[in-house]
Write a structure and sequence with these properties.
Number of helices: 2
Structural class: alpha+beta
């Protein structure tokens, strides 16, 4: 027979090889044996109140007993009476507020169109209408910069390509009608001199008739 020390350890000495029975008794009043043989490690589990041991030229230090505190039945009943199940309130869920998407009408700008510009040429710099790189429409201006007319490229029945005015007159077949003040200045001087000479002759004739 042996007893445990203050750390709960015990040992049997002077045992011969053979079969033995280890019985744990005189347990502390507030403790009881825990569940036996829980787990796969025999060195740390509890072996129960009665354990059969075989000694064969070696010490077996795995025989032990696990203790747990006994539950107080009065205290547990009292706790059961005073323990009320927790009241759980259903969660309050508010429906999500969805705002309608704000869509702005797309801003459409009117397309910008550029009108083709008609090239301008002087009367003595007219391009050859038979040239495939020449423009399809031209504007003729005089030496003073005044416009003389607009002409478009046309193909005649004989195959010739010419510039024709809006009036249907091919460019170069008739003289271009000039606009603006293109009256020759020298002609005005001649007319003025003739008028002076005529006035002088009339005055002489009038004086001669008056003297006679």
């Amino acid at each position: 027979m042996t007893t445990t020390d203050s750390n709960g350890k015990y040992v049997f000495t002077g045992l011969d090889n053979g079969d033995y029975v280890v019985v744990f008794n005189e347990l502390p009043g507030d403790y009881k044996a825990t569940t036996s043989n829980v787990g796969s490690d025999d060195a740390v589990d509890s072996d129960g109140l009665v354990v059969y041991v075989t000694i064969n030229n070696a010490d077996d230090m795995t025989i032990d007993l696990g203790l747990v505190i006994k539950a107080d039945p009065k205290k547990s009943k009292k706790e059961k009476k005073t323990t009320e199940p927790p009241t759980t309130e259903p969660p309050t869920t508010e429906p999500p507020t969805t705002e309608p998407p704000t869509t702005e009408p797309p801003t459409t700008e009117p397309p910008t169109t550029t009108e083709p510009t008609v090239p301008t040429y002087k009367i003595d710099e007219i391009p050859d209408p038979k040239d495939p790189n020449s423009p399809d429409e031209i504007i003729i201006i005089g030496a003073d910069g005044n416009p003389l007319g607009a002409y478009k490229k046309h193909t005649l029945p004989n195959g010739d390509v010419v510039y024709i005015s809006e009036a249907g007159v091919p460019l170069g077949t008739t003289s271009v009608v000039k606009t603006g003040n293109d009256f020759p200045q020298y002609l005005l001087i001649v007319i003025a001199l003739l008028a002076l000479v005529g006035l002088f002759i009339i005055r002489r004739a009038y004086r001669k008739q008056y003297n006679d």
